[in-house]
Structures are given as structure tokens and as C-alpha cells.
């Protein structure tokens, strides 16, 4: 519990530092509402995938979801191809948008259930299963689209998801925040959340306690798939086109975000709020490097270094040695954080 | 091949049964791969007789060298219960830096020294992996994701992003040197290059390590159950450093061969193919949770993937189906192996 609060405080401090650093480097333009909005609209895609990875990791026993971005692209591609044969995007934009959204969510959910069923009932190791489904999902997207980008265009409703603001906040970010809050509530207030975390902590004890193990596993990967479907919608809304190989580096970044958020790769612990903050921190860092005029390759290098640094921090509890964080941790220790 | 010292979990005390086909498949899962491979070859041979020409077979052999070297490294790591996705980045790193070094500083370096230096360079990067995995005590998948970014990011930001089209002469010559030459009926000449020999040599060395040395025993023991292995006195640190170092060495070698074979050094190459390689090793019967795996099976897995990649077009299936087919094969193989293991 002390550790979880420490991690949260650390992420908040990092976010704050990055904002200050950005403001100093850019002379204030980093904090302009335009830049903040543009950053906020870039977070949701990867943030949604990272929450999916977090859930899979929490389930323990090597749980991981490598199929996230492939499934997101598959949802976008298949939904776009199917729906555009029934509804014309140009004559009836809102009907097309609604059909596209429903299709993408459904395909994401279906893909997630397939993952979960393979892992729970056929007992395939999660890494291997999601590796296989990642290839299969991507392959299916290639087959359906013929390897080309599929144009979704910008029908009214969909394009507003990608580009418009509510109270100065991009709609995509609002959707992301809403989805994150929903998952957080699910983890905290339902038996599912308790089962998931305890199963990740001690699978044997969970088995003897009579948890519905298969149900929890299927639900976990189904939620992850659902989030991928939503990510697919946001990708389509922001990019006009959907393509099978969009965001090929997202797979690793999603895992990086989850690990940075203190999610235990061996299972049993993870907080949605930390994942959201960690996704925002990564976006800030990426924008900061862009402001500094550094290439994408330097960013890749920095992310690799960062991932390893965070693993080292988690391993040696370097955070615990920092006096400021220690001070923060102690008073908040008895706070009603729950065993999550 | 002799039976490797496999650690089957929880079946040591199972009653001795009549050794039926199911038993054989469970013990030697690569038989399925062999069966699949032969079936595909026969079907494709019937549909399109062009497949069974010497030139096609040589193309397949040539295409499997780099992937085969990668797969041998992955096999060792999988057998010890780890996973590595950074080997392609190691290969890209060593191949490009080596080529650059030879081109700009040491133009007279003989090819043998170049190969050895690339191997050693790859091994050093692999040892970094091993040390990190050991000391951070985190799943090796996550650590190697980090090092993949680290190595590739370092290569592209600090070493270079320019394609080298004009290789140093000794490297080009090595890529062209022939072992065998065939002339087909229509006069087209196909050659089996000398570098093909590297793969069987590496396969034999890997087989020797896994089956004839204490390190091989330690690797299977750690892959079966690392806690018990360490209590039995196997040093986890040594095993982890060795296996990642060995995989790195093979990756470095594979990288330089890739350069010589393609007659250009592209720093953006290779990374992204790691999933294919892991798929090949898994299709070859190695369990992703460790403790099992054979060199023979791995080579079959590599051949299977290379054959699938190259024959889809020959039988009239569009190449867009390649990923879907490989993905389906992985899931089928995984499901099959798992159900076999449960039914005792």
C-alpha cells in the first residue's frame, strides 16, 4: 500500500516536472492550450491499449496481451470494410459512424473473448496465445483490406470524436478518461476486481477458494479486447484511414506504460490511475523530445532506457530512498486505498 | 538425435504405458511439424511441380540461414524458460556497425576476422541482456523489449541511418562465393552459397551444447523449474548470462551474413521479424514455458515458416494470407501440444 501511494506520487511528480521542463525549454508555448490539446488527443489510443495490458498482467501466471494494437487495427479495418458496403459514409454520415463504432467495439470484444477462451479453456500460455492471435488478427486485417489502407473518411460524428473538443478537452481524451474510470470502478467495486487481483497474487489459493477462474480470465481478455476496439475507433477517427500495420511500436509502448505505472508483470497489482498518469507522462516526454528537435530514434532509445530504469527502480526500491517521497508515503499509508 | 534430458513436469511417476502414437507425439512433438512440412511439400509439389526444382529448394535453403541462426539462439533461451525479442536489434546493431567500421576504418580486415568480431560483438550485447534479466528479476520478455528499443535506438540515433549500398569487397565476395551450382532446364543458374554452411555448423554446436555438456543440462533444468535447479546447485546467473550471450553471438553472426547475402547494409532491416522466429521455434515443438525443445525440431519449424512464406504464391494463394496462415498454425500447434500434454 505504501508502495502504491509512492508510485502514484512519483508519477504525479514526474508529470509536473515534465510540464515545468517543457515550459522552460519552449518559453511557455509548451503549455499553450493548443499544444496541451494536441497532446491530450494523442494519449487515448496508447492509453487504452496499456490498460488492456495492465489487466492481462494483473491476472498473473505470465499474463500479457500482445495482440492489442493488432486487434485495434483489425476492428477498424473490418468494421470499415463491412459497414461501408451497407451504409454510405457520404450520404448518411451519422448512420455510418454509429454502425462503424458498433462494429469495431463488437469485433474488439469478440477478439478479446477468443483470446480469453484460448487461454482459459485450452490452457495456452498467454504469451504464446496472444502472439498467435496477434499474427492472426493482423493477417486477417491484411486479407480483408488486401494490404492497403482502408479509407474511413471523416463522416460527421466520427470526425468529431477525433477532432472536436468538449469544454476545451478533446473528445477522444474524454472517452479515454471515461473508459479508464469504468475499468477502475470495475476493479474496485465488483467481485471481479478482487478475484482478478487475488488470482494474480496466488493462483493456487484462488483455485482452492473456488474463484471462477476461467470466467475471470475470459472477462479480463474480453475487456482488453473491448478497449482495443475503442482504440481502433479513435485511431480511425483521428487518421481518416485505417491500416493493418498502424502503430507497430504501440505493442512495446503499451507494456512500457504498464511497467512504468508499477503494474507487476508477475501479477496481482495494478492501478488504472497510475496507468493513465504514466501514459500522460510518456506523451509529455515524447512531445518534449520533439520540441527539442530530436529524432524519433532518440525517443526510442530514451524509452528503452526508461523502461529498464523503471524496472530497476521497482527492483531496488530506489524510490524509497528519496526522502521527499518517503515523507509523502507515510501519512497516506493508512488511507482507504484498498488492497489493490 | 538422442533424447534430450527433458524435465516433464509432474509426469515422472506416471505409469509406463504402451508406447503408442500419441505417446510418441507427446514426447517428440516435432513429428507433427515434420508431418505438416512433408504434407505441404507434397501438396504444393502436386499443385505446382515447379516447387520441387533444385532452384526452389536452394532458395528455401538460402532463405533459412539467417532465420535458422536466430532460431537456434531463441531455442536455447526458450529451453531455459526465458524469451528474447531483442536479438534482431542485436543483429542490426552489429551488422551495421561492423560494416561501417570495415568500410571507414579497417578496409583490409579479412572476412574471418569480421565474422568473429560480429559474433563477439553480438555476444557482448547478449551478455548485457543476461545481466539485466538476472539482476532486475523481471520477466525476460519485458527486459528484452527494453533492450530492443535501447539497441535499435542507439544504432539509429548515434551510429547511422544511411543505407550502405557499396559493401567492402571482402564482404561482397563472401556473399557471392559458391558451394554448389545448378543449371536448370531453362538455363537459369542457381547457386548455393558458402555461407549456407554456417547454419548446419551452428546447429551441430547448439545440439552439442544442449545434449552433451553440463551447460545444456543446466539450461533444461532451469527451464523445467528454476527454483529447484538453483537449489540443486546450478548457478542461475551463469545460465542466464550464457544463454543470452550465446543467442547474441548467433544474432551477430546472422546479421553479418544477412549483410553479405543481400549485398547491402540497411540499419532498418531485421527488427520486426522476431515474432516469426519465435513462432518457428514454437512450431518446432519447444514449449514457451521452458524445459523442452530440440535442435532438430527447431530446424523443422524454421523450414516450415520459410516454406509457408515461399509457397503460398506458388499454389495461387495471395501473399496477403501469409500472416494469417502462420498465426493459425501457431494457435493450432499450441492448442494441439497442450491437449496432448494433458491427456496422459
UniProtKB/TrEMBL annotation, chain A:
<dbReference type="InterPro" id="IPR001851">
    <property type="entry name" value="ABC_transp_permease"/>
</dbReference>
<feature type="transmembrane region" description="Helical">
    <location>
        <begin position="46"/>
        <end position="64"/>
    </location>
</feature>
<feature type="transmembrane region" description="Helical">
    <location>
        <begin position="71"/>
        <end position="89"/>
    </location>
</feature>
<keyword id="KW-0997">Cell inner membrane</keyword>
<keyword id="KW-0812">Transmembrane</keyword>
<protein>
    <submittedName>
        <fullName>Simple sugar transport system permease protein</fullName>
    </submittedName>
</protein>
<keyword id="KW-0762">Sugar transport</keyword>
<keyword id="KW-0813">Transport</keyword>
<feature type="transmembrane region" description="Helical">
    <location>
        <begin position="301"/>
        <end position="318"/>
    </location>
</feature>
<dbReference type="GO" id="GO:0005886">
    <property type="term" value="C:plasma membrane"/>
</dbReference>
<feature type="transmembrane region" description="Helical">
    <location>
        <begin position="12"/>
        <end position="34"/>
    </location>
</feature>
<feature type="transmembrane region" description="Helical">
    <location>
        <begin position="95"/>
        <end position="120"/>
    </location>
</feature>
<keyword id="KW-0472">Membrane</keyword>
<keyword id="KW-1003">Cell membrane</keyword>
<keyword id="KW-1133">Transmembrane helix</keyword>
<feature type="transmembrane region" description="Helical">
    <location>
        <begin position="246"/>
        <end position="263"/>
    </location>
</feature>
<dbReference type="GO" id="GO:0022857">
    <property type="term" value="F:transmembrane transporter activity"/>
</dbReference>
<feature type="transmembrane region" description="Helical">
    <location>
        <begin position="127"/>
        <end position="147"/>
    </location>
</feature>
<feature type="transmembrane region" description="Helical">
    <location>
        <begin position="270"/>
        <end position="289"/>
    </location>
</feature>
<feature type="transmembrane region" description="Helical">
    <location>
        <begin position="216"/>
        <end position="240"/>
    </location>
</feature>
<feature type="transmembrane region" description="Helical">
    <location>
        <begin position="167"/>
        <end position="195"/>
    </location>
</feature>
<dbReference type="Pfam" id="PF02653">
    <property type="entry name" value="BPD_transp_2"/>
</dbReference>
Automatic annotation (TrEMBL), chain B:
<dbReference type="GO" id="GO:0022857">
    <property type="term" value="F:transmembrane transporter activity"/>
</dbReference>
<feature type="transmembrane region" description="Helical">
    <location>
        <begin position="241"/>
        <end position="259"/>
    </location>
</feature>
<keyword id="KW-1003">Cell membrane</keyword>
<dbReference type="InterPro" id="IPR001851">
    <property type="entry name" value="ABC_transp_permease"/>
</dbReference>
<feature type="transmembrane region" description="Helical">
    <location>
        <begin position="321"/>
        <end position="339"/>
    </location>
</feature>
<keyword id="KW-0762">Sugar transport</keyword>
<feature type="transmembrane region" description="Helical">
    <location>
        <begin position="149"/>
        <end position="167"/>
    </location>
</feature>
<feature type="transmembrane region" description="Helical">
    <location>
        <begin position="109"/>
        <end position="128"/>
    </location>
</feature>
<protein>
    <submittedName>
        <fullName>Simple sugar transport system permease protein</fullName>
    </submittedName>
</protein>
<feature type="transmembrane region" description="Helical">
    <location>
        <begin position="271"/>
        <end position="288"/>
    </location>
</feature>
<keyword id="KW-1133">Transmembrane helix</keyword>
<keyword id="KW-0997">Cell inner membrane</keyword>
<dbReference type="GO" id="GO:0005886">
    <property type="term" value="C:plasma membrane"/>
</dbReference>
<keyword id="KW-0812">Transmembrane</keyword>
<dbReference type="Pfam" id="PF02653">
    <property type="entry name" value="BPD_transp_2"/>
</dbReference>
<keyword id="KW-0813">Transport</keyword>
<feature type="transmembrane region" description="Helical">
    <location>
        <begin position="31"/>
        <end position="52"/>
    </location>
</feature>
<feature type="transmembrane region" description="Helical">
    <location>
        <begin position="295"/>
        <end position="315"/>
    </location>
</feature>
<feature type="transmembrane region" description="Helical">
    <location>
        <begin position="64"/>
        <end position="97"/>
    </location>
</feature>
<feature type="transmembrane region" description="Helical">
    <location>
        <begin position="187"/>
        <end position="210"/>
    </location>
</feature>
<keyword id="KW-0472">Membrane</keyword>
Amino acid at each position: 500500500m505504501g508502495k502504491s501511494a509512492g508510485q502514484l506520487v512519483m508519477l504525479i511528480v514526474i508529470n509536473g516536472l515534465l510540464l515545468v521542463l517543457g515550459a522552460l525549454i519552449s518559453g511557455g508555448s509548451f503549455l499553450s492550450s493548443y499544444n496541451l490539446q494536441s497532446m491530450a488527443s494523442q494519449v487515448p489510443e496508447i492509453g487504452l491499449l496499456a490498460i488492456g495490458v495492465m489487466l492481462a498482467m494483473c491476472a498473473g501466471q505470465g499474463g500479457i496481451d500482445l495482440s492489442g494494437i493488432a486487434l485495434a487495427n483489425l476492428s477498424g479495418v473490418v468494421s470499415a470494410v463491412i459497414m461501408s458496403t451497407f451504409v454510405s459514409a457520404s450520404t448518411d454520415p451519422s448512420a455510418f459512424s454509429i454502425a462503424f463504432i458498433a462494429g469495431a467495439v463488437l469485433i474488439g470484444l469478440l477478439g478479446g473473448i477468443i483470446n480469453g477462451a484460448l487461454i482459459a479453456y485450452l490452457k495456452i500460455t498467454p504469451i504464446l496465445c496472444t502472439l498467435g492471435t496477434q499474427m492472426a488478427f493482423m493477417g486477417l486485417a491484411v486479407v480483408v483490406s488486401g494490404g492497403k489502407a482502408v479509407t474511413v473518411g471523416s463522416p460527421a460524428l466520427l470526425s468529431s470524436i477525433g477532432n472536436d473538443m468538449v469544454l476545451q478537452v478533446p473528445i477522444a481524451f474524454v472517452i479515454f478518461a471515461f473508459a479508464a474510470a469504468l475499468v477502475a470502478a470495475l476493479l474496485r467495486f465488483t467481485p471481479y476486481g478482487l478475484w482478478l487481483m487475488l488470482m494474480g497474487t496466488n493462483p493456487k489459493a484462488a483455485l482452492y477458494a473456488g474463484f471462477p477462474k476461467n470466467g475471470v480470465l475470459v472477462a479480463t481478455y474480453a475487456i482488453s479486447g473491448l478497449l482495443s476496439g475503442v482504440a481502433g475507433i479513435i485511431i480511425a477517427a483521428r487518421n481518416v484511414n485505417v491500416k493493418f500495420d498502424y502503430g507497430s511500436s504501440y505493442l512495446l509502448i503499451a507494456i512500457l506504460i504498464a511497467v512504468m505505472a508499477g503494474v507487476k508483470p508477475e501479477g496481482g497489482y495494478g492501478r488504472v490511475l497510475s496507468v493513465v498518469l504514466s501514459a500522460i507522462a510518456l506523451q509529455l516526454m515524447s512531445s518534449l523530445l520533439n520540441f527539442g528537435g530530436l529524432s524519433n530514434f532518440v525517443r526510442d532509445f530514451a524509452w528503452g532506457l526508461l523502461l529498464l530504469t523503471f524496472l530497476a527502480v521497482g527492483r531496488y526500491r530506489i524510490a524509497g530512498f528519496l526522502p521527499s517521497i518517503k515523507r509523502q508515503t507515510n501519512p497516506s499509508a493508512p488511507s482507504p486505498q484498498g488492497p489493490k | 538425435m538422442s533424447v534430450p534430458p527433458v524435465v516433464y513436469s509432474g509426469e515422472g511417476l506416471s505409469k509406463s504405458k504402451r508406447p503408442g502414437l500419441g505417446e510418441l507425439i507427446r514426447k517428440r512433438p516435432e513429428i507433427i511439424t515434420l508431418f505438416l512440412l512433408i504434407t505441404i511439400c507434397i501438396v504444393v509439389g502436386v499443385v505446382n511441380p515447379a516447387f520441387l526444382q533444385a532452384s526452389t529448394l536452394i532458395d528455401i535453403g538460402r532463405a533459412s540461414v539467417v532465420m535458422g541462426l536466430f532460431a537456434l539462439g531463441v531455442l536455447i533461451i526458450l529451453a531455459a524458460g526465458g524469451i528474447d525479442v531483442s536479438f534482431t536489434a542485436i543483429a542490426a546493431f552489429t551488422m551495421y556497425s561492423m560494416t561501417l567500421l570495415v568500410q571507414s576504418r579497417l578496409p583490409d580486415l579479412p572476412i574471418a576476422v569480421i565474422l568473429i568480431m560480429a559474433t563477439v560483438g553480438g555476444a557482448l550485447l547478449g551478455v548485457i541482456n543476461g545481466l539485466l534479466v538476472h539482476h532486475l528479476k523481471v520477466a525476460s520478455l519485458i527486459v528484452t523489449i527494453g533492450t530492443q528499443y535501447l539497441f535499435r535506438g542507439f544504432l539509429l540515433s548515434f551510429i547511422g541511418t544511411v543505407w550502405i549500398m557499396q559493401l567492402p569487397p571482402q564482404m561482397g565476395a563472401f556473399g557471392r562465393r559458391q558451394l554448389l551450382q545448378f543449371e536448370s532446364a531453362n538455363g537459369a543458374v542457381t547457386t548455393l552459397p558458402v555461407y549456407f554452411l554456417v547454419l548446419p555448423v551452428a546447429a551441430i554446436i547448439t545440439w552439442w551444447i544442449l545434449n552433451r555438456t553440463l551447460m545444456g543440462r543446466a539450461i533444461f533444468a532451469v527451464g523445467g523449474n528454476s527454483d529447484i535447479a538453483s537449489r540443486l546447485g546450478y548457478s542461475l546467473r551463469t545460465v542466464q548470462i550464457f544463454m543470452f550471450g550465446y543467442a547474441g553471438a548467433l544474432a551477430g553472426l546472422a546479421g553479418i551474413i544477412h549483410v553479405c547475402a543481400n549485398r547491402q547494409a540497411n540499419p532498418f532491416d531485421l527488427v520486426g521479424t522476431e515474432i516469426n522466429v519465435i513462432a518457428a521455434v514454437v512450431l518446432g515443438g519447444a514449449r514457451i514455458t521452458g524445459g523442452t525443445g530440440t535442435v532438430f525440431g527447431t530446424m523443422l519449424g524454421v523450414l516450415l515458416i520459410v516454406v509457408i512464406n515461399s509457397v503460398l504464391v506458388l499454389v495461387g494463394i495471395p501473399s496477403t494470407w501469409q500472416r494469417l496462415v502462420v498465426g493459425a498454425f501457431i494457435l493450432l500447434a499450441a492448442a494441439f501440444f497442450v491437449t496432448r500434454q494433458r491427456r496422459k
